[in-house]
Predict the 3D structure of the following.
Amino acid sequence: MAQKSIQGNEELARKIKQRRNELNLTIEEAALRAGVGTKTWSRYEAGESIRRDKCKGICKALNWNRIPEHDEEEDERLSVQEYKDNGVWSQFLENRFGVGAAMSFAVGSDILLDHIKEDMAELASMPIGTHIGQLNISWLNGSLPEQFLMHYNYEFLHQMKCALCKMRACAKNGLPMTAYSVMEELLLYLCCEEASALIELSGGVNATEDRDSVNSEEWIFDLFDDMDIISFLYTDVHLDVHHPYHFSHWAEQQFYTD
């Protein structure tokens, strides 16, 4: 069954670099084609592991059908048991909403945390005040609500990272997971979206549980008890500064505080 990452090695790193040179691509050009940062691409050529959600971009950049020496006969589905054993598994989410919810958070939070760190690394080399819309490559640019694009600077991404790490710690320790702020709602929603994309790309999950339970995406709105995050942040509604979903209120604890 599929692992979370393809194990890096010297031979694979050599082939990636050789193929890039054959195509007369710089590291920057290859990274741009693959949709990753230059530092991430450099890690591939240094022999580090490759996350499964990045494989499609690498193949696109290098005109490969698949990663060399990657067994096409391997079961590509993600393993629930692997995430239970090694990932940030929320027993709370599993008990309340089913395996699908816990799997969604475990997979999605891994990917989202990686995206945040990559964008932070790119912003760190830019002038203070630069936002993700000014980066050549940003994994978050197409995911975060567009109305507040110019607020997504290094400081904001650091705030996102800290909030997500706190959620992952709660999950790992079996604590209740509740979205008290718009920031927390947004992070959980993005985790769900990232997980859905990777699970679909991998052909589903490998589990003995009921498939509907494993693949369900409705848990996130059951947790929120509404779809306000979609209604207000992912539609053409313009929010004024007094609206609770305006960027200026994202960090405030507004929900379930009575």
Q: What stands out?
A: The chain has a mean pLDDT of 85. The longest helix spans residues 99-124. The two ends are 45 Å apart (CA to CA).
